[in-house]
Write a structure and sequence with these properties.
Two copies of one chain form a homodimer.
Chain A lengths: L11 H11 L4 E3 L21 E4 L3 H14 L3 E4 L16 E4 L6 E5 L4 E4 L5 H10 L2 E2 L11 H7 L6 H4 L6 E7 L5 E5 L11 H5 L8 E8 L1 E2 L3 E9 L2 H13 L6 E6 H11 L10 E9 L2 H17 L6 E3 L2 H20 L4 E4 L8 H15 L3 E6 L4 E7 L5 H21 L15 H23 L13
Parallel strand pairs in A: 2-4, 3-4
Antiparallel strand pairs in A: 1-2, 5-6, 6-10, 7-11, 8-9, 8-10, 12-14, 12-15, 13-14, 13-17, 16-18, 17-18
Chain lengths: 469, 469
């Protein structure tokens, strides 16, 4: 399959046409484009777009895509650029559409429990807005400054997936612009839909390769009235992690089950300059329970606390005050930044394995740590089997780093495959993880994905070279 | 796009080959095939397959598909045949694969809360099995003798969608056979997955046109310890229905909110020979609440009962004994059969509209009833906007029936479109509802769906002529 067309390079005439669409103030060319737009948060891949266009409406996006389609120019859509796999890097140059200014909350419909938003609204803004209205948008990825468009495109998960599921579960409808500029409405406010292939569900998680999301209708829930966190120290990580499938088996589903190790906590204390409520143990589980009354929650967590104590927990620390919860969750929120600040460079792996295989996977990373003589840090979502594993460069040379990193990634993704896990739980494939995806899914699935990509985008101009290419 | 190949007719040589795959006892040819296999429950369309093959394994399905693909023979997969839109009718003849005997529950994994099943397992068997293990499979369509394969293919919804969502939300992984015989594993036991396009979510709801499901990994929840139903009589249906968005707005989400009218209740009493707890009012809402304690549920329903009384409810009847619940829900379960028994022939429409538009849609069906001088019966899922509307033939001539039915369908689907609703909430498009889908989604989306269909099935041999064709 010949995927990469001989894309047209942007010239003066193109710029004139694009200026006619959005005006001259929202277009940036060549060296005037900030270097920020050449990369995401941790992709390790960089490339500048030829033109950067800030858009304000669906119609503008549609006109740009129509022109790009007719003229064979590659296009990448970008939100906050908080991705971790290079999905929004314009590796073929061309046009970058910046959707950050399409950031209006359009409608809260309390009778249908939906929120209609533009793609550039930040996750933290959605959280704040709905909570002020006593409502709840459950997906809760760590990176709160991501846009909702980016969250939908990676099918972001986050802490509360154990109980509430992932972003796709909360997308009721989408307005999208197709690669040829056609505007389509998919789904809507309806709760059930069995009316043809579910294009909406397919576009969720497609990392900007199939269509550009210009509006989303999100499903909301009533806001749980109370939430309590339990911080549970264990003698070692094995004991902590091995307790997780027992909690699930006991049929009390917490909202979230996170795991963390002492050295990550210490790094976070140093990074934030704030004490964590406890740092005496080697490993911790952090559980949250939510519900509508203290009694309801207590009944749930009593059972789980008992299971933890029976399985080697040293103590069960209850965080029911806002202050204590804040101190725990702000530390949890700073783990990524704290690890990043402790080294020269790092890369990450966010495999997801069945819940009862997490312990085995983490032990394997210890083995790799020794074998390759590198620092490897873990934390993540124990409740849903989604690990966040960071490999640190420290003082390695560029060459050693690249070689060792590749070897470690190969080992980890092969292990994930062996455990019936998957390459990415929530960060996506983008540019950086393609070969590991191909290894997992095989040639037939890769070819099928590419045929579908071309069904959406026959000229392969929308974010080419990503996911399955 | 030329979709319909010059399909090969089955000959002696084909039969010999197919017998070599499954043996001679599981193949039926020509007039030996029971007429049952020419239609589903209410499709109004009939066509016999040329060969009917009962399969027992994925490998058999794969071999049959490989042969059919190489020889350009159309294939339709079938479960219990309880569909309502002709999706499993082999309109181009060819091979029918009967999956009903692939009906084993393969594994209950309590640590990952998953159930692995073959596609022919019946919904009622899954319900029984998981409840015996104190677990819960939430999707709850009325037709309990449907297979899980059929449920996944229509993305079936049912009563509990208000709180728990639909079938797609509970499918973690699929094993499928592609049109060319390739076997693929999609998803798995993992809770989160952002690893390439979500083929699994796309195949859910694709009505057997993209691949044949040969295994499914379902997500389970802990079984709620208690459930209580409230039967709430209202003076008239308007008052009942108009209360629904107020319940949702009050942020107490019931498990289900069904509506029913007096004459449907009377029909069901007659059909079952059993009394309904109350038949004095014109209209009823039937609500269920579930949870882990009586107190938790009571807190929830007290609030909702109050809202109902403030909005014209005559009374609130609580069904907390098994006996009373059984009498209400067995009546609810018999509505379709009871209406069917009251007339000569009927057809149905299962539009889904935003929850706050149900009242408007139902009033519109009253108008049509008068205008066309036909009996039209409603019941359905008020909580999720998914209506079940039955148009009865009674003593109309065949010609009048066909003409009037078409005219009424046109009116209803146009109204659904006007209210931002969709053609089908849970029954699917199949063969019978295609033109209404095309009218709703327009030419661009139809063409896109067809391009995707051909990406899965380049020779268009798997269930051709359905959904978007």
């Amino acid at each position: 399959m010949e995927l990469y067309n001989n894309y047209k390079k942007i010239d003066e005439k193109d710029i004139e046409f694009l200026k006619a669409i959005v005006g001259k103030d929202r277009i940036c060319i060549g060296e005037d484009i900030s270097e920020d737009f050449s990369h995401d948060e941790l992709g390790g891949v960089k490339k500048m777009p030829e033109v950067l266009i800030e858009v304000l409406s669906t119609e503008e996006v549609s006109k740009i895509m129509k022109y790009a389609y007719e003229n064979n120019i590659p296009v990448v859509a970008r939100g906050s650029g908080t991705g971790l796999v290079g999905a929004s890097v314009p590796i073929y140059g061309g046009i970058m559409i910046n959707l950050s200014s399409m950031n209006k909350i359009l409608e809260l419909d309390e009778e249908n429990l939906t929120l209609t938003v533009e793609p550039g609204v930040l996750l933290m803004e959605i959280g704040k807005f709905v909570e002020e209205n006593d409502l709840f948008y459950p997906p809760d990825p760590g990176e709160k400054s991501a846009t909702i468009g980016g969250n939908i495109n990676t099918n972001a998960g986050g802490m509360r997936a154990v109980k509430y599921g992932v972003t796709r579960d909360y997308v009721r409808g989408l307005e999208v612009v197709m690669p040829d500029g056609t505007i389509m409405e998919l789904g809507g406010k309806v709760v059930k839909n069995s009316s043809g292939y579910s294009l909406k569900d397919f576009i969720c998680g497609s990392e900007g390769t199939l269509a550009i999301i210009t509006k989303a209708i999100l499903k909301l829930l009533p806001l749980p009235k109370k939430a309590i966190s339990l911080l549970i120290p264990f003698e070692d990580l094995d004991k902590a992690i091995e307790t997780v499938p027992k909690i699930i088996k006991a049929k009390s589903i917490p909202t979230s089950i996170e795991f963390m190790e002492r050295d990550v906590i210490l790094a976070s204390e140093e990074f934030l300059g704030k004490k964590f409520p406890d740092n005496s143990a080697d490993a911790y589980l952090l559980l949250t329970f939510d519900g509508n009354s203290k009694e309801e929650i207590e009944k749930n967590y009593d059972n789980v606390a008992e299971i933890c104590l029976q399985n080697g927990a040293i103590d069960v620390l209850i965080a029911d005050t806002d202050e204590r919860k804040e101190s725990i969750w702000s530390a949890r929120g700073a783990f990524l930044e704290a690890i990043k600040a402790s080294t020269t460079e790092m890369d990450e792996c966010d495999v997801c394995v069945p819940r009862n295989k997490i312990a085995e996977f983490i032990k394997y990373t210890y083995k790799l740590q020794k074998e390759f003589n590198m620092r490897i840090k873990n934390f993540g979502h124990a409740g849903d089997g989604n690990l966040h594993i960071y490999i640190l460069k420290d003082d390695l040379s560029e060459e050693d780093w690249n070689n060792k990193l590749k070897a470690i990634f190969n080992c980890m993704y092969n292990k994930a495959k062996e455990l019936n896990g998957t390459v990415s739980g929530e960060h996506g494939i983008g540019f950086a993880k393609r070969e590991y995806l191909f290894n997992l899914i095989g040639e037939d699935q890769k070819e099928l994905m590419n045929r579908i990509k071309l069904a959406f985008d026959p000229k392969n101009i929308l974010n080419p070279g990503k996911v399955c290419q």
